[in-house]
Every structure is written in structure tokens, then in C-alpha cells.
Amino acid sequence: MIYTFYSYKGGVGRSMALANVAEWLYLTAGLRVVIVDWDLEAPGLEAFFPSDGRPAAVARQPGLIDLLLEYKADLPYLDLPPEADQEATVKALSEQLTPLRSRVFPLRRPVTRPDGRTSGVWILPAGRRAGESFTAYSDAVQDFDWNGFYARSRGHAFFEWLRRQLVSPDLADVALIDARTGFSEMGGVATRQLADVIVSLCVLNSQNIEGVRAMTASFARPEVLAARGRPLMQLVVPTRTDNNETDALNFAKGQFERQTSDLLPEPMRGRRTFWDLRIPYVPKYAYTERLAVGASDANEDLVAAYTRLATQLIELAPAGAAVRATLHDDRARELRSTVALAQVTNVPARLPLLVGREGLLSDLRSRFAPAGTPIVLYGLGGAGKTALAIEFAHRFTADYRVAWWIDASSPERVAQGYVQLAAALGVIPGHDPIAYAREWFAAHEGWLLVLDGAEHPDVLEPLMPRERRGHVLITSRSPRWTGIATAVEVPVLAVDDAVDLVRRRTGESEPAMLEGLARALGEHPLALEEACAYMEATGRSIGSFRERYADEGARFLQRAGEQRGTGHALAALWLESYREVLRDPPARDLLGLLSVLGSESVPVEAITCGAPVTAARFLWEPATVDEAVIKLRQFSFVAAREGGLQVHGLLAAFVRMWLGEDLVRHWTETGVGVLSSALARSEAPDELVLAHAQAVVDRTDDGSTAAIELLDLLAGKQEELGRIPAAAATLEEAVRRSRLHLGDRWVERAMRARLMLLIRTEDLQGARAVLQDDVSWAAANLPKLRQTIAVDLAVVLLRSNEYADAQRIISAVDIPTERVLVQVLLWQIAFQARRTGAWSMPRLDHAAQDSQATVQREVERILGQLPLDRIADGFLRADLFPD
């Protein structure tokens, strides 16, 4: 195998990387390594191997430029076939040219290993340039005509001969070429023609990254690959990364990965990225040529980086290659377990789009001390816990030597994850891999262990690392990790972030359309992603999608998620947890009740302290309620919000779908009873209870008498809060419902309640309008109520000083004058008592004098039978209906 080390610009540590990789392959892998100093304009690769005065000796040896010049001089005397026969020419050169092994110079003394294998490092230098030879060397390099060499000296055949010499088993196991920087003919030979793998090194600035990007594309042009006749793999290695500048480093990492991720060779895909091969900047190595690998005072991070690079190069070799055999060497695996693979990762690929999580990422980073308590990300299924953990592992990868991801959904899968980690760390045969992995965590710092999808804290805790010298990040639907991990909730997205997600996924720019979809799906990340994927696949617009959702509800979302085809549909994710809830009757019933209420938090005290409702008797058993809540929180089906319980609106929609019409009706009726009890016994109105009362009424059938009673209670509480328009609308709904299916008692009660609200608020104009409508409706639908309503209308007209209109109503409907006067007096007395706390008989300045005595007697009879508070409050709330 030939690995060519290339850089678009100088100063990136290319030669140093090559030298350290060569040393690692020699010391650790036990290989025979040949390095070639192809940087003829700036030679000196041997300076990294200073023992025994070798650098000076190497500079006196003939090298690459001498080989080229000698070949050109000898070419006329060689017996070569016609130029067109390339293969025959290479074969002839192999027979007539001196083998390359006679031209390489040892940098490390060859060592015979116990298995009989020889290891060593040799160099083919740039050329003889020591002392007085330097002038001749520089002239030769500057005057060498590379294009002419190809055109007139059978250059292609010569370099093919050289390539075969470098890969010959007689010479070495692996060859490393230090190529020239930038664009050059000499660099092109080392990369395009000789290399099996090109290792492009670059620092993290735009010139380097863009230059390397352009050169990798140039190396992979179809005509180049056709001329080679064999595959070419390329690596891009970021260098001189400074871990002390974490924010800048993470920004640069994002830029680098965006421009290079598509260049990953196939053997690396899904296993690691180019970023995993990064080489840090260590100042003490900036001032002299020195090796880190094998040195007693070596910087551990730098050694780990060169080891990662070396082992990756080995893994790219084809099966059967000499260099690949070292992967099975016990000594190599032992070293890799402690140093070589100190940067091991199996973190899933970074997700292309993650919005609205910057605050959480920063919070996680700050919560993680150098080593300390594990953190659990919890939340509703599909909220983005796993996505957040993936992003955290990628964004802060510079902080960790090992970042390992384990499926923690069962003890068996956790054990399997440890086995895989132990293998990646290079566990020695005969060791227990699980114990080995956990011991490794105890012995090392700077690692991240992600346990994804953990459900049972008590089951997982014994499997977690005992010594917390690194960071443990857990994802779970359950928040119950007290004493084991610090719980951090992952909520659904904020509205603005949900809008941003939809905009970026769909390209839609209309704010109202974007916000409408975001709110319709409760800002839930996975639901929004499934919706966008469905629209993308079907070509539907946001408006069309929302229309279908409005018509079909959760069932449509379920189909949309299934058609996405990822195997992680939201409905299926929730249904799995819902089936577990069904096994727990109190939890099942509590979820059924909560699913028909509103999306706001439900005050627990408000719905659990009143007269029992038969279908929800468990609400009056505090221990049972607590156990049900614990069960539901295990899956984040309920969240603790503002002293109550909250079910996400989208989850509630799915629960109602799974319940079916009959059970939804059952729980709606139950909800009406529970909230009626809560409103009836509450002294101070609770806004949340009012919201849920409205929500549950909206789900009831129009013919529900219990719903009309709840509407009456709801209106009273709204009036207490001063929300008169809301109370009026509530009573209007009660009237509408009572008119549809119910008897005259319910119609009269609803209309009277509405009227009393208008009278109490002294809205005589509104009272007159509704009464006129009621008289017309009663005449057509319920004639026996017409006179009762007409009495109220006459009273309103009298209180408005519209005596002529009142008289016409009285005459038309044939109402006894005394009845109207009694009603007037009772209203006046009630209002006076309401304001002053006492009552007295008012004068009826405009009443007929001959009726005054009769009216007074009738009023006194009524007042004698009723206490003051009944007159002042009960009557005004339509509880008193004098005939």
C-alpha cells in the first residue's frame, strides 16, 4: 500500500504526521516502512529521525532526483519494447533497472520480531544535497522538466515501475510519500499516479479547506481514474486544532464537516468521520522536528491522534495486504486499547436539521462538570431527545477521547453495547468484555457514554460506569431518575422554532401558513417532520395538509407517519407506550379523562376534591391518583405544569382515536360531571378549570342536559371574574342547545339565565333584543312559554321607561297587570338589596293607582316566604321564577 501525504498549503504538519505514522507502524504494528521524500523543493524528512547522526548521512545519499536523472541518462541504452506497449515497458524496466531496495537508507535499525517478522524504517531521500552538493541539487530540481520527462522519457512507465517497486514484498509492507504542496507536476505524480490512498492535511481556514476540496475533486476526475486503472481513496485530515478554543473549534468543525463529509471513503461511512482523525496543535512541537510516537515525554493527545490516523490507514488496506494483517496482532490491539484508539466513536450520523435547541445544548455543557453526575434528557416520545444527544456528541466531540453510543432499551442491549465498545477498545482475548469496558471507564478521563432510550432507572443503574471520570448522558421518556441522574426536560419546540423548522423543510414563506401548521401539530418536532416529509412526498401544500388533518384528525397523521417509511412513526412510538398504560386501570382511566379536557394544565386538586363521579371514583383516592400519575409520567404522557397535569394536545388526539367513539363519549360525560362538581364547590374561580369546562362541553352532544348545567355554572364563574362577554356567549350556547332537543323547562331555564345576566349588568338594550327574539321563537316553537317571556319583555320595557311599548306587549299577550308589577318590584328590591344589604318597598310612580294595593300584598306575600339573600342573589341568578 502506498499512502501519499499531501497538503494544499504549507505549515499544516504534513511531514510531521507522516513521520509519526511511520514510527507507529514500525514500533506498534511491527511493519517494514519505506518513506519517500517527494518534496524536492523543501526536503528534509529525515530530520524527524535524528538518532545515530542519520539526518546528515541521509543528506549525503543519492535520492529521488538522482534516480530520475540517472534513468534519463541510461534511457538510450535500455532495451525497451515499443512505447505503446506500456506493460511490456514496465516489465523491461524491472529487468534492467537497479531495484529500489538498493537505494533506500535505513532510519531505524531493522528488528527481527519473535514471530520472525522484520520491522524497520527506510527512506528514499530527495537527493544528495549536503555541503557542496546543494547547488547541484537545487539546479537539478529547478531545471527538471516533468512534462518533457513524461513526453520523451516514457515517464508514465517509469513511475509505474517505481510504484511496483514500492509495493514489492521484497522492499516493504507499506510506503509513505511526502508530496509537494499545492499545484505541481511532481506532486501530481505522487498523488494521481502512485498513491493508493491520498491523505490530504489542512488547517481549519477557508483557503485550506476550499483548496483541499478542489484538489480532491481533481484527483478523482474520471480521466485520472481511468489512466490509473485502479481505485483511489482519499482522506482529509484536519490539523493544528486547538482544544482550548472550544467555541471557535466547534464552529470550524461545522464548516469542515459540511465541505468534506461527502468525500468519506466507503469503509469509513457510518463508523467515523474525517473529524475523528484530527490532529491537535501542541506548541512544544512547533519549534523543532521531533516525534511524539515512542517518545518518553510525548504529548498523549498528539500520540492518540497519530495512532488514530495510522490505524485508519491500516483499515483502508484491502484484505490480504501485509499491512492489514497487523490488525490481528495482540500487541497492537493491546496498545490500541490504552492509547491508539483513545478517540473511539460510534455516535450516529449528525442530523441535517436541528432547530431551537441551542439553549439546551449550552445548558448541558454547563451542567457537565469535568466529571460528575450523569444527566438524563427526558420528555415525550418524538420531542427530540435522541437528536439532541447526537448533536451534543458531535458538537463537543473535541472534549472527548471516547464517545460511545449504546441502545439502553433493555439490559441485554446495554450488555451488547459494552461488548462492542470493548472490541473497539481492543480487548485482549480471554477478558470479560463488559467488565473490561467498565474498567476502562474507571481508569480513563475524557469520555462520553450515551445510553439511549432507557426506560427503567433501577434496571440501568447497575450497568452504568461505577467511576464517573467522564460524562454519562441518558435519554428517557421517564423523569424519575432521582439519585441516579440530573433530569433535564426536552420540551416540544417554541412556536418560532417550530415555524422555522417548517419553513426550512418546505420552503414556504407565508408566516400565517407556517404558524398555522406549527400550532396545529402542537409544535411537536417529529410530528412536524412527518408532516413535512409527507408533503414533500405527495406534493401537497401546507393548506391542503391542514384541510385533511382538520377533516380526519389523528388518523390522517398516523397514515402520514407510516408513509414516511422510516420505521419510527410517531403514532407507533406512542402506541407502544399506550399499550403499557392500558395494563394499569387507574392510569388508563386518568389518561382517558385528561384526553377529553383542554390542552392546558389540569389542576389536580380541582378535580379530585368533590362529590365522587361514579365513572371516575378513583379521583377521590389520593394514593390511586398518585400511582396513576407515576405510571403516566414514566412515558412523559403527562407533564407537571403549574401545579397540575398536562397532556400534549396531539397525544390527546391520538388517545381519543385509540379509545373510539363510545369511550370518548363516556369520558366526555365523566369530564362534564367532574368539572361541574369542581365549579360548584369552588369559591374563587380558577381560570384553568374554566378552560377545561369549556373544552369538555365542546366535545359533548347538543342534547346533553349535564352539559347545559355545566354551561350555566361556567357562565356564573365567568361573570364573577368580570368576563361578561364570555359569560353571555356561554349562556347563548346554553340557549341554542336547549332549543334543539330539550323540553320547555330547560328552554325556559336557559333563556332566563341569559336574561338575568343582561339585567344584572344593566344591559337593557341587549335584554330587549334577546327577549324579542325569544318571543318570536316561542310563538313558533313553544307557545306556552310565550306569555312568560312576554312578561320579561314588558318589565324590561318598563325599566327602560318605554311605557307605550310595554302596554302594547301586555295587551297583545293578555298579561295581568299585577303580574308585571310584581316582577318589576321584585327586580327593584333585588337590586337594592344587592347594593345596600337591606330592602324596602319602592314607589311605583308610573303604576296604576288602583292596582297598587294588590301589588303590595303580593310582594309582601313573596317576601315573607323568602329570606333576603334568596331575594338578592338567588332571584338574580334565575333561581326564583314567580308565576
UniProtKB/TrEMBL annotation:
InterPro entries reported for this sequence: P-loop_NTPase (IPR027417)
Matches recorded under Gene3D superfamilies: P-loop containing nucleotide triphosphate hydrolases (3.40.50.300)
Name under which the protein is recorded: MinD-like ATPase involved in chromosome partitioning or flagellar assembly
Species for this entry: Solirubrobacter pauli
The organism's taxonomic lineage, starting at the top: Bacteria, Bacillati, Actinomycetota, Thermoleophilia, Solirubrobacterales
